[in-house]
Amino acid sequence: MSDLEVLALDSVEAAKEAQSKESSNGRGEANFLSTVGDRYLLGDGRSDHDRLRVISEIHDDRTRELLRRAGLASGHHFVEFGCGLGYVTRWAASEGAHTIGIDLNEDTLTVASELAHEAGLKNAQFRCANVYQPDLEPESVDISYSRWLMVHLNRPVDAMRAIHAALKPGGVMVCEEADASALYVEPASVAYTELLDICLEGGRQRGVDYSGGRRAHLWAKEAGFELVHVDAYHPHYITGKHKGFWNWTLRAAAIGMVKEGSLTAARLDELVAGMTEADASPDTLVAHSRMHQLIAKKPDMKS
Fold first, then answer.
1. What's the CA gap between 112 and 86, in Å, rounded?
2. What domains are there in the chain, each with its CATH number?
3. Burial tier of 224 (Cβ tally within 10 Å: 0-12, 13-18, 19+)
4. CB contact set of 146 (below 8 Å; sequence gap of 6+)
5. What phi, psi does 283 have (nearest 5°)?
6. What's the pTM value of the predicted model, to 2 decimals?
7. What is d(CA 88, CA 94) in angstroms, rounded to the nearest whole number?
8. Rounded distance, CA 17 to CA 217, Å?
9. Alpha carbons 65 and 95: distance in angstroms, whole number
10. Rounded Cα distance, 273 and 72, in Å
11. If 0-12 CB within 10 Å is exposed, 13-18 middle and 19+ buried, where does residue 89 land?
């Protein structure tokens, strides 16, 4: 069994325990979802720290290329929204930028700060704040970055407007947002398809758009940005340690539904078994979500 499978199965067991406790004490959705973002379904704690690390392994090389294309340079004021463990924030600091990582999860920020300290990055700071009210000086930021943030928000355009206000004239917003509806398995996996549909519908019920990556450029234009660059890439795996990443992510989202009572732990177990069977087959292709990349500029009023 892979490390991904061990960590994810631990999370399923935790979800069963949480569902049992909530059934007995009468607590429901508000208890689980009131404190993290716009009704954010993915978890926290050790398992999600490991998931964030794998996201970094899969995507950071392309992220760095995108930020270099956007013009990131030493001396720039750089802010990452939804920074998680701060992988991108620390890399930007290592390039000489003055960086701030912003997130709502204080435990994650503590780890991010410790990692920056261990790396000797005195120019990397982390703070707990909301993207809608980031507590940044107006027109103080050269480059902002976010990954998989806007698709979790009820008001992505408002979030981009807040970023717009923080950017200097001529500053750029860099986003990488997923289109989870592009995930597929070949030969088809009934379990993958069902759990993906459950999670996409769960997002719609919460007023968020997990396929929103394809619309990120439209959100940016509505927020007042000029489009500079759009692109997309689509990771595919037939083997390898990252093949089962979306198995892990889908069940992490579904665990939130188990905790709130909209999905049973028993049904989740059945779907997990089906997805894991697909991941284990050397003949089965797993295509991850398509990642949409965006560079958008705040108009320079001097030009």
1. 5
2. 3-297 (3.40.50.150)
3. middle
4. 80, 81, 82, 131, 163, 174, 175, 176
5. -100, 0
6. 0.85
7. 10
8. 41
9. 13
10. 43
11. buried
Q: What tokens appear for 67 in the block?
A: 């930020």
**pLDDT string in tens for the chain (303-residue length):** 444 544 444 444 544 444 444 444 443 333 222 223 354 444 554 557 888 899 999 999 999 999 999 999 999 999 999 999 999 999 999 999 999 999 999 999 999 999 999 999 999 999 999 999 999 999 999 999 999 999 999 999 999 999 999 999 999 999 999 999 999 999 999 999 999 999 999 899 989 999 999 999 999 999 999 999 999 999 999 999 999 999 999 988 898 889 888 899 999 999 999 999 999 999 999 999 999 999 999 999 765
Computed on alpha carbons and rounded to an integer, the radius of gyration of the chain in Å comes to 19
- Residue 100: closest CA among 64, 63, 58, 129: 129
| In the block, residue with structure tokens 């720039």 | 76
Q: In 3D, which of 57, 114, 115, 121 has the Cα closest to residue 92?
A: 121
d(CA 119, CA 115): 6
Nearest to 229 by CA among 188, 172, 157, 303: 172
Beta bridge partners, 233, equal 291
- Rounded Cα distance, 130 and 166, in Å: 13
Alpha carbon separation from 51 to 35, 153, 168, 274 (Å, rounded)? 20, 20, 33, 20
Max intra-chain CA distance, the chain: 63
